[in-house]
Amino acid sequence: MNSTFGLPRHVRWRIAIHESGHAVIGSRMGFYLRExxxxxxxxxxxxxxxxxxxxxxKNDQCELAKRFPRDMAIVxxxxxxxxxxxxxSGPLSNGWHKDFDIARIGLGWxxxxxxxxxxxxxxxxxxxxxxxxDADSVIRVAExxxxxxxxxxxxxxxxxxxxxxxxxxxxxxxxxxHTPLQPRTSQ
Length: 187
Known about the structure:
Elements: H1 9-28, E1 33-42, E2 45-54, H2 61-67, H3 69-87, H4 96-108, H5 117-133, H6 135-148, E3 150-152, H7 153-162
Antiparallel strand pairs: 1-2, 1-3
Helix pairs in contact: 1-3, 1-6, 2-3, 2-4, 3-4, 3-5, 6-7
C-alpha cells in the first residue's frame, strides 16, 4: 500500500509533483526510469516522500551522478524545480537536500576542490526551464502517481508521449504498484 495515502492531499500532491519532476526530466534526458513512487517502507518504518529510481551502475544513483554529473544534477534538481515552478514555492521539507548532495558529489568529480554553489544555481535554473517546457507531462504523471502510488518507467513514458487524460480506476483503493493506466471515460 502507498504509505502517503494518510497524508493530507496537498502534501501528497507536493510530493507527487516533486517526484514527477525527477521522473519526467530524467526520462527526457535519456536516463532509463525503472520506477517512480510515493512513500516507502524500510525495515518496517514508513518514510514520507518518494523516489524516482533510474537504472544505475551498481544500483547506486551516486554512480550516475559521477558518470553524468551535469545531466544528473539537472535531473536531481528537477524535483525542487517542479515545486518552485508549478507550486510557486520552495520544497516542503529538507528531503530535497539529498538530491542536491548527490548532485554536488557528481559535480565534485569534475570540479575538484571548488565551491559548487554557482554551478548548482546555474543547473537549478536549467532544471526550472526544463520543468516549464514539460509542465503538462509533470502534472499528468503527478496525477497518475497520486492515484496509484507507483508507476513504472514504461507507464511514465506512455503518459509523457500520449498525453492521456488519465484517472485511476474506480477501485483505486485496491491499487498496488504497476497497475495499468486506464484512459478517462465519460461519467
